[in-house]
Amino acid sequence: MNCGEPHETDCSEVLSEVWLFLDQECDSSRRAALQTHLDECHPCLEQFGLEEHLKALLARKCGGDHAPADLKARIRATIVEIRTEG
Fold first, then answer.
1. Are 9 and 37 in contact (CB under 8 A)?
2. Could you tell me the sign of the dihedral formed by the alpha carbons of 58, 59, 64, 69, in that order?
3. What's the rounded Cα separation, in Å, for the pair 11 and 6?
4. Long-range contacts of 38-42 (CB under 8 A, 24+ apart)
5. Structure pTM?
6. SS3 51
7. What is the pLDDT along the chain (86 residues), one digit of tens a residue?
């Protein structure tokens, strides 16, 4: 996705990292860059809102269980692999 407006951080990059942002799993400088983009870009902010609601729904329905660290690591590695292939 790209809103067509110039941003320091590309829309597709922000949306691909929205879950890291929501889970507070990115460093403070990256979090600030993502927050700046969300403050400037209405389409990304709308998408972020949907993701935020989905995360809250999953937390309610799944009882707040956390995934094991090794599962998170495998999922992240797969995402990185897919992103570099594309």
1. yes
2. positive
3. 9
4. 38/14, 40/5, 40/7, 41/3, 41/5, 41/7, 41/11, 41/14, 42/3
5. 0.59
6. helix
7. 556 676 777 888 888 888 888 888 989 999 999 899 889 888 888 888 888 888 888 777 877 677 899 999 999 999 988 888 76
